[in-house]
Amino acid sequence: MEHSYTIVVPDNTILTKLCGTNDSNLRLIEQHLGVPVFMRGNELSVEKDDPAIQEQFRFIIDRIIDEIEEGYADTEDAVASILNTDLNPDYTPTKDYFERERIHATMDEGAIIVPGAQKKLYPKTQNQADYVKLLRTHDMVFCTGPAGSGKTFLAVAEALRLVLSKEKKGIVLTRPVVEAGESLGFLPGDLEQKIGPYLRPLYDSMESVLSKDTVKKLIENDIIETAPLAYMRGRTLNDCVIILDEAQNTTCEQMKMFLTRMGNGSKVFVTGDVTQIDLPKRCRSGLVHALDVLSGIPEIGMMQMSATDVVRNPLVKKIVQAYENAKDN
Q1: Residue 183's CB: how many other CB atoms inside 10 A?
Q2: Of 3, 128, 149, 302, which residue has the fewest beta carbons closer than 10 angstroms?
Q3: Under a CB-based contact definition with an 8 Å cutoff, are residues 33 and 56 in contact?
Q4: Partners of 285 in the β-ladder
Q5: How far apart are alpha carbons 86 and 77 in whole angstroms?
Q6: What pLDDT digit, counting tens, does each position of 79-92 carry?
Q7: Domains of the chain
């Protein structure tokens, strides 16, 4: 007689969304686990006396509940993403090998755990999971892809993890200031007020991980520094995480200058969307050039996101896909 493993979902609204239309989500979970999933009242259970299966089940249900609480509209899409994300390709469950603590560590390997954050941050697609691995195993990582694919958010989250866990001393955030077609000198305010709007997306990413007060304190204590790309010349940045966002709008000269600011013990994360270049037509993007020139260096990680990695409003994914299809025709 198999022993059942049961999870209680006290919120009926969450339980309904978790199960999906006509229990479609439960069927997906069953296919993934290879065992039936039973629902009795507000309890979900699997009748399998296998620690690996039971911990996979717990992990999947917890992840789905997290997505629902974050307001993810399409739970079936979220479930499919969770089940298709291989957080550890070497994971091969066996009945006797795994102890409970080891299984937890294996299943949570892809999570970004930021000290002080309310919850763990999980990659939502396979590419995002691979990207997180690159961020952890390489000192320099390039990530390109469409808006909403997580390239900047995951880089910021990993940077916060490294700093708040005392592995690195600080974060330097920078962007080329060309998007609005205006010179900083013509914008009102001091330098911080001028550069602020350009770096707002990076602040938004940080504030979705930590409270605004915590982010503000990190900035006030110079643990997080923001600077226009032009102000990076002549600096050497040691023992920190340096993030260059919107890198598609750098020139080749700016990109070389930025990459050579990397000092001892530092990590460099470069993100951008090569389909949204705002440089003059005859000016080659420094990001495109760097991806070509540096592709043969194994110590540099490179990741290409696609429309399938977009995790914003589902309509954004369709918009990105439509533009990609139009480009191919």
Answers
A1: 10
A2: 3
A3: yes
A4: 251
A5: 16
A6: 777 776 654 434 44
A7: 4-84 (3.30.1370.10), 126-328 (3.40.50.300)
